[in-house]
Amino acid sequence: MPTPDLAAWKKIALDFEYLWKFPHCLGAIDGKHVLLQAPANSGSLYFNYKKTFSLVLMAVVDAQYNFVVVDIGAYGRQSGGNVFANSLFGKKPKNLQLPLPAEEPLTATSEPQLPYVFVGDEAFPLVLIVMRPYTGSVVIGNPERHERKASHCGSKQQ
Hints:
By secondary structure, the chain is of the alpha/beta class. The protein has one domain (about 5-155). The chain has helices spanning about 5-20, 80-85, 90, 145-155, and strands spanning about 25-35, 55-60, 65-75, 115-120, 130. A five-stranded mixed β-sheet has the order 3-2-1-4-5. The radius of gyration is 21 Å and the shape is globular.
């Protein structure tokens, strides 16, 4: 598959903003283990965390679930983040070879300049072009106050 050019990335970002209300999103990225029978003399290269043998399919999809970028054939023992980092697609941003849109405000009148990003899960590295969920739990303010408030929420006042 040819890597999208700058105009194609901008079109994908506009589609994400229109369809999903997510501005500056260039695609959703994820990996999938494709089960296989262990190749002869492969040792543990294809043995994954699910205790099966697999190849990893990593892909980026656009706002309408169409494949935009695919990387097929990484060893099953690799994590999604490693597959991304070692793929041609994952290496291109570091080498400035991927024609991504430059940082810009979300609207013509807003600030600050924000990057275009890919959205992925916690398997992907926390880098400028990948947005992923925060995996920790956060309690703002006094934790004891939150516990007291939570314990009173279920009781009826008389």
